[in-house]
Recover the amino acids of this structure.
């Protein structure tokens, strides 16, 4: 399903109830399962990723298909390695090309037995009913934080707990800290000294939680505020002291003319003056909002240089390459000066006013979400495979319709 998007400029205010965070929801689901389902979970994400995880945890089938859900694949690999059951984990064609070897080898070193059924280092996986029993592992810190979070989540249930030594540069640090914070909220104590995280064998405690809204999903509303003639946006369900690292975007978007005010259970966005003519930032700690900023900065004619994007190449697509390809269609020539970097020096070509522009999304929800606001500047913008937003923000198209974005299926 492809959507043609047009924007009808108008001065208005809007209030949006954001979807719940899938990052929080997915971690809570694993914690709950390991607690023996003693936690009352409210306001869980309705994203595809979370629904796949719920279905997998409730399934008695040996074969589990998680589709495009990368978090589910990583978390379930660790969870089922501990379950004492035989399982086969598979997914979409893209999932079969997303690496998981580092996590699998780590679990096997701990005593699990996991085999690759097709390509070495990639799903699908055959997980045998052989539980891990060792207590120490060394893992590179510059790989996906989901590998590390998957190991951390199961660590209290291991017979001797777990000691993880992280080597080299640690990327996506807020996601690791988010995992530890959530574990601690349900009774798990840990120590983190220098590059070593130690968790003794413990039991997750019962409790209840109302899942916070998704700060990554909020980023697209900050983008819309920066680009469109809108006077005020209220976003419900966000907290100032959030576990989510992407809450950093409130500070970053001040440079792009968006001011954030916090109230009880909501934030208010208002437009201010641009505060920068060049944007330089290391997205190592917030990789999921890099696409939002790349599109926003180009459309605001603010040259930029991004660092810390190493993990973007193993997401739903190679996001660096995808950004370069699709922003070129809008007239912006980006380049990758070094591994994990992206820059735009201000080079721009003129696009004919009525030219139809088709944005490929590469089965990546964040490509659709980040490029849709570009309709403020480009008439007849088409977003291909628009339903891909269901991976994290199923209500997105209905929500942006409320502020003047008209979507038409083509």
């Amino acid at each position: 399903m492809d959507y043609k998007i047009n924007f009808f400029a108008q001065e208005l205010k809007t209030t949006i109830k954001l979807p719940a965070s899938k990052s929080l929801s997915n971690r809570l689901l694993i914690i709950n399962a390991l607690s023996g389902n003693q936690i009352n979970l409210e306001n869980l994400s309705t994203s595809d990723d979370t629904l796949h995880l719920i279905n997998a945890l409730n399934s008695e089938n040996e074969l589990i298909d998680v589709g495009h859900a990368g978090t589910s694949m990583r978390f379930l690999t660790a969870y089922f390695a501990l379950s004492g059951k035989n399982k086969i984990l598979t997914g979409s064609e893209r999932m079969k090309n997303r690496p998981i070897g580092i996590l699998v080898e780590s679990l096997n070193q701990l005593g699990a037995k996991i085999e690759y059924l097709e390509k070495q280092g990639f799903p699908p996986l055959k997980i045998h009913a052989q539980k891990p029993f060792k207590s120490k592992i060394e893992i590179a810190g510059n790989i996906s934080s989901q590998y590390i979070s998957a190991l951390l989540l199961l660590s209290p249930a291991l017979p001797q707990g777990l000691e993880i030594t992280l080597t080299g540069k640690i990327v996506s640090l807020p996601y690791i800290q988010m995992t530890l914070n959530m574990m601690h909220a349900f009774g798990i104590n840990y120590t983190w000294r220098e590059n070593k995280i130690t968790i003794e064998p413990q039991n997750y405690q019962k409790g209840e939680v109302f899942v916070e809204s998704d700060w990554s999903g909020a980023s697209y509303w900050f983008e819309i505020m920066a680009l469109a003639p809108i006077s005020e946006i209220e976003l419900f369900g966000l907290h100032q002291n959030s576990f989510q690292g992407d809450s950093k975007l409130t500070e970053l978007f001040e440079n792009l003319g968006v001011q954030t005010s916090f109230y009880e259970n909501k934030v208010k966005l208002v437009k201010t003056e641009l505060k920068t003519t060049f944007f330089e930032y290391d997205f190592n700690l917030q990789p999921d909002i890099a696409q939002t900023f790349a599109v926003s900065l180009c459309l605001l004619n603010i040259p930029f240089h991004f660092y810390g994007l190493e993990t973007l190449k193993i997401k739903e697509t190679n996001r660096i390459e995808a950004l370069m390809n699709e922003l070129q269609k809008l007239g912006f020539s980006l380049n990758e000066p070094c591994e994990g970097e992206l820059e735009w020096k201000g080079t721009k070509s003129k696009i004919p006013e009525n030219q139809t522009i088709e944005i490929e999304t590469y089965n990546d929800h964040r490509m659709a979400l980040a490029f849709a606001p570009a309709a403020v500047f480009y008439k007849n913008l088409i977003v291909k495979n628009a339903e891909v937003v269901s991976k994290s923000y199923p209500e997105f198209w209905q929500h942006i319709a409320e502020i003047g974005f008209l979507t038409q299926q083509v």
